[in-house]
Design brief:
Blueprint (H helix, E strand, L loop, with lengths): L9 E3 L4 E3 L2 E9 H7 L4 H8 L6 E7 L1 E2 L6 E6 L19 E3 L8
Antiparallel strand pairs: 1-6, 2-3, 3-4, 4-7, 5-6
């Protein structure tokens, strides 16, 4: 018996990190949005303003995930369809790290 059906965006299991059993990913947001919405020190703000406006910044996004399905997790809360996330080298990132998308990564 199927009682209901709801579609959720899915992310690769390899992109999910855990801290104290809380899953999260690094969401990639535009530099301007990061500078407006974050508590950035004046020194960091000056450094970031020297970067191109198209720069993306990695920000921790806590998630509520569904059960693993074919190496992907359905995202119940924390991201919206179309949000950009880091899918490789995530363990090297920290909150506020500027990132560059490699040419072969964009689909």
């Amino acid at each position: 018996i199927i009682i209901g059906k709801k579609a959720f965006p899915a992310i690769p299991a390899s992109s999910v990190l855990f801290q104290a059993q809380q899953p999260y990913v690094y969401q990639l947001i535009p530099l301007n949005a990061y500078l407006k919405g974050s508590d950035v020190s004046p020194k960091q703000s000056r450094q970031l303003k020297d970067l191109p406006a198209s720069t993306l910044i990695a920000v921790e996004a806590p998630l509520v995930l569904g059960s693993l399905q074919s190496d992907h997790f359905p995202v119940r809360q924390g991201l919206n369809s179309g949000d950009r996330i880091a899918v490789s080298r995530s363990s090297m990132l920290s909150n506020g790290t500027p990132v560059r998308i490699s040419a072969g990564a964009v689909k």
